[in-house]
Amino acid sequence: MKVIIIEDEQLAAERLIELIKKYDPAIEIIGKFDSVKKSILWFSKNVHPDLVFMDIQLGDGLSFEIFEHTIIDCPVIFTTAFDEYAIRAFKVNSIDYLLKPIDFDELTTAINKFKSSYKSQINQKLDNEVFDKVLQMLGKNYKNRFLIKVGEHIKSINVDDINFFYSLEKATFLKTKSDNNYVIDYSLEQLENLIDPQQFFRINRKYLVNLNAIIDIITYSNSRLNIILKHSEDKDVIVSREKVSKFKKWLDK
Questions:
Q1: Domain with CATH 2.40.50.1020 in the chain
Q2: How does pLDDT run across 41-73, given as a tens digit for each residue?
Q3: DSSP string, the chain
Q4: What would the CATH number be for the domain defined by 145-251?
Q5: Whole-structure pTM over 0.70, yes or no?
């Protein structure tokens, strides 16, 4: 089986390749692309693979744009961090999906489904109705408040009043603009899908930061960046090397 991977996050791509090889070492990864533009160019000039794994949100747009510029005559399995109920809106024809972080058992089920269902060539197309549903779902509302328990009291914290989220000793905290820390019942991975990505960015495994909380950005060793945050006692808030490029694009929006 020949496979193409379209994914703009290096760690996510490496994780997917690892799981695919775990499923079957004989599967050949014949291409890995990180943008809509590169994918369109490749599909327009090469024989298509047996299967494509395609992330929905790429650095230069939604991967659905690829279908608008070229006909993909092989099945696609989308990989996405969006809510399962939203993804069901476009689970049609030969399209399937895997929710991030990708689980090996779910990957196995998806590939087995492909192998049993697509013994003949299928012309895959997303029609306008499906595009409209997906775009509507992608414009979903993000979380505006978090309920915090303080002793016997419960209070509501507005997202706009949060400087950053951080993990410490297997717990997740939020830091407010008034310099208060509160523990919350979400992981940073869950928070990435709950709050507006235009306002918050996951700079490393420990921090998810508010754009308005950034005081200064200092060039660090090996092309990394050191972030100075409001009300942060940590002087080494480093943007991980693999996120520097996307972080700069986020700042420049």
A1: 145-251
A2: 999 999 999 999 998 888 787 887 888 888 887
A3: -EEEEE-S-HHHHHHHHHHHHHH-TT-EEEEEE-SHHHHHHHHHHS---SEEEEESEETTEETTHHHHHS-B-S-EEEEE-S-HHHHGGG--TTEEEEESSPPHHHHHHHHHHHHHH-SS---B---HHHHHHHHHHHTPPPP-EEEEEETTEEEEEEGGGEEEEEEETTEEEEEETTS-EEEES--HHHHHHHS-TTTEEE-SSSEEEEGGGEEEEEE-GGG-EEEEETT---S-EEEPGGGHHHHHHHHT-
A4: 2.40.50.1020
A5: no
